[in-house]
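Fold sample X.
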Amino acid sequence: MKRSIFTLVVMTGLFAPACFNAQQKDSISTEAYQPFTQDSKRFDDWAVSAGVGTALIQTGNITSINNGAGKTLFGYSAYFSVDKAITHAFGLKLQYDKGETRQGFASTKDHLDNVKAARTQYDAISLLADVNISNLLRRVDNKSNFRWALHGYVGAGTLAYRAYLQEPGKPYNQSLATEVKPFKLGSLFAQFGTGVKYRMAESWDLEARAMYVVTNDNTFDGAINQYQHTTNKISDNMLTAALGVTYNIGKHQSHLFWHDPLQEIYYKLDVLADKTDDVEVCKKGDADNDGVCDDWDRQLDTPAGARVDGSGVALDADLDGVIDLYDKCVTVPGPVENNGCPIESIKHNNNDGVSETVLDLKGIEFNLNSDKILSGNTPILENAIRTINQSGGSYLIIGATDTRGTDAYNQKLSERRAGNVKNFLIKNGANAGKLQSVGRGEKDLLYPECEPATKCPEWKNRANRRVYFEAK
């Protein structure tokens, strides 16, 4: 069931006064509010994660990716973490990593004496910041249940490892080259990366993650031990990629990273709507189907499609007696016989010198910066054709604009408007010999007070953008 935020605003407006009266400043009861505690939470914020994948040394004296023998040697990696969500977009992870990298090339078939091969077994403990990037971009009024989320990770910790080096020409003879103990200054490392999570169930998430580990150590790859000296002091950095799962600990249906606080409100509104559907709201019904019960509807025969006020009366914005549904000029009063639009009268002097009305025509309005005749003006112009052909005089078709734009531009625009109306009349049967068109730009305003245009509401500026007739 679709429902806009407007519904929430209405609901808030209905219940807010009652809540306010129940919570007077001098007599606030303990039931007027509920402190935020573990029991009052509607979401879980603890989780554990685990995953397995591969590990490769990306930079070093010997590497795992396209090493000296042109091969890529895949190691393995695994991680386990305890996760705490602090906000909907930020959390912390205490993570343990374990794995092994393989670098160089150790095949007896393709082994070269000048290419070393090694493997490194490592253990690491780190503290990672977890940023839910998706939640930073999402709207909180999105009623969809989120299923995907992009996370970013960055942190530091302590790294312990044992690097084994293969002696040249002896593929099965590997000796310990370097060993680094944890929790020492030289064991500090940093890592950062990203992961894409998919919510499989209420408590389970699936994640694909890639991390980049900066060891700041030149002996991690095993090619150099701590007793050797070299000018190549490049940091041996590592890439890890893993597929893992997260278990959200708690009794609630959603974790804080997946929680949408408005979901409960939408649920309650759906329940309320379902109950309302089963109740007969109008005792006497709603005969005209305008949304106002006949019990208090003051207009029981409202036309279909008409907008009504709270008493069921069709709206008439300009109070001219023509409801907005049928009013061709909603904001400008006009008679019923002219569809609620004002009438401009053109008079001629007959042969006896007496002035008589020969043409009643309202202003033909145009959109801003446009000379296109609107489809709503077609009936008016067709009536003008009949009147022109039946009368004995000739007419001047005058184009005008509002005060926006330069004088030169408005002059050209008014000429095009008048010309288009003339062409329309002639094309549809009007006597061409009785018609002449002229443009007066912004010099002939129906509402002169609209100079500049910002002084007036838009309906007045629109009325200035018109074509009208004068008798010659």
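Fold sample Y, listed below.
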Amino acid sequence: MNKAEFIDAVAAKAGLSKKDAKNSVDAVLDTITETLVKRDSVSFIGFGTFTTSERAERTAKVPGTDRTVTVPATTVAKFKVGKALKEAVAK
């Protein structure tokens, strides 16, 4: 499912126009992004938690050669699945 299909599904399920559903989905995604940029977490009980994690600088080997490169430190987004979602998917 891509974003457009997701917006269509939200509109149908919530009884909203596609425009209102798009604005709602965009607002949710923007809010999650802004919160993660501030290095805070977003938690939806039963669904899951969005967090950030720091990855330290490291040295990696280039496959097929003996050359090594330095991979810079970075911040990554992470998602931990909540219990209700995990159980629903496992069925």
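Sample Y note: The first strand starts at residue 42 and ends at 44.
Also: The mean pLDDT is 96.
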